[in-house]
Automatic annotation (TrEMBL):
Residues 1-24 form the signal peptide. Residues 95-127 are annotated as: Disordered. Keywords: Signal. It comes from Paraburkholderia caballeronis. Residues 95-105 have a biased composition (Basic and acidic residues). This is Plasmid related protein.
Length: 127
């Protein structure tokens, strides 16, 4: 008999936050929010680079920030970020992420994670 595949979560996602634009994109593509979250906590990092996959694997063990990017059927990219303290996971459209040249909200000085996402992941970036 075929048994369903059971994925074991690698970490607790904390509070789930989904931006309205990400929710609209997921709904218009028929992708449930829970499926994106389950992929993320199971260690399927999506379309991030090999370096970022290795960084995520280390981040899970070391208690650092974890990042995944998934491409939807309409080619919209969804960014999923779990904070280093596992207090929250945010799901947003990648184009909602400010470019590194744009002003950002001030962050805590005790931040313990790399500056992600890599600019090459931005919507419409050339390869």
């Amino acid at each position: 008999m075929n048994q369903p595949t059971r994925l074991k979560p690698l970490f607790h996602p904390g509070r789930l936050l989904v931006t309205p634009a990400a929710l609209a994109a997921l709904r218009s593509n028929g992708v449930p929010v829970i499926s994106v979250l389950l992929r993320h906590v199971a260690g399927d990092w999506g379309i991030v680079s090999d370096d970022d996959k290795r960084q995520n694997d280390l981040s899970v063990v070391a208690g650092l920030r974890v990042l995944s990017i998934y491409r939807l059927p309409d080619h919209t990219r969804i960014l999923v970020v779990t904070e280093w303290d596992r207090s929250a996971t945010t799901i947003e459209r990648l184009n909602e992420v400010p470019h590194e040249d744009e002003p950002r909200q001030p962050r805590s000085s005790n931040r313990r994670y790399p500056r992600w996402p890599n600019p090459c992941y931005r919507q419409g970036a050339s390869a």
